[in-house]
Amino acid sequence: MPSNHSSVSETVKVTISHRLGKGEAVKRIKEGFARTDGHLGPMLSIEQQTWDGDTLRFRVRALGQIAAASIEVLEDSLRIEVSLHWLLAKAANRLLTALRKEATRLLAK
Length: 109
Description:
The chain is α+β, with helices and mostly antiparallel strands and 109 residues long. Helices cover 32% and strands 40% of the residues. It contains 3 helices and 5 strands. Strand 3 and strand 4 (65-73) form a beta hairpin. The longest helix has 16 residues, at 92-107.
């Protein structure tokens, strides 16, 4: 019996506060993503990064699935949104923890 989950997705959001100002935060995210060479750990990779103003849009590959994601850089925070395939939504806490950890690390000196 075919699954009806194939097009079901769920958007998860997380906000990370910072005190760097928008310009410095954008700079650190850009430099940090360039240094990661597309990998945020053994099971998480970044594909198709594009900047639209102060928003980084990219695709995340995890557990063989692809998710659309964005990081919007604000003056005092980052707003991360990930549209997860239903299978990844089950692992959302681990995925968000990895993205939050990496974004926080990129903001730190």
